[in-house]
What we know:
The protein is mainly alpha-helical. The protein folds into 2 domains: about 5-90; about 95-155, no CATH class. Helix content is about 80%, strand content about 5%. It has helices at about 5-25, 25-30, 35-90, 120-155; strands at about 95-100, 110. A two-stranded antiparallel sheet has the order 1-2. It is elongated, with a radius of gyration of 40 Å. It starts with a helix and ends with a helix. Residues about 90-115 have low confidence and may be disordered.
Amino acid sequence: xxxxxxxxxxxxxxxxxxxxxxxxxxxxxxxxxxxxxxxxxxxxxxxxxxxxxxxxxxxxxxxxxxxxxxxxxxxxxxxxxxxxxxxxxxxxxxxxxxxxxxxxxxxxxxxxxxxxxxxxxxxxxxxxxxxxxxxxxxxxxxxxxxxxxxxxxxxxx
Length: 157
């Protein structure tokens, strides 16, 4: 090839590249700063990956909600139905045991509002309350013993 043809091709390519670089200065700046370009590229890739993970999580939670909603709906209907049936029958018990906070010995545990037909269930509740009272007394004794031990330990130090 002659020098003139070579110069013509070279000037045509340089002219096209210069025009493209002039119209895209950001790309030229990124080419001249490779570390910054690499950091920006990694940040972009991580952002896209995070977006896809969030989108996947959203879809998974959406499907779980869609699949669980009939079951939750039926649970709500059945619990509402059982509450209304028990209220309709007059067997609703607001609270079986009340605790009087003013009593220090906790003898205020009483049966309240129990409408039961069987004597066995009332006896069973009385036995449970008696056992709970005994356990509470033992717990108080153990707490006093532990505080005495800790008090002696701190006095020794």
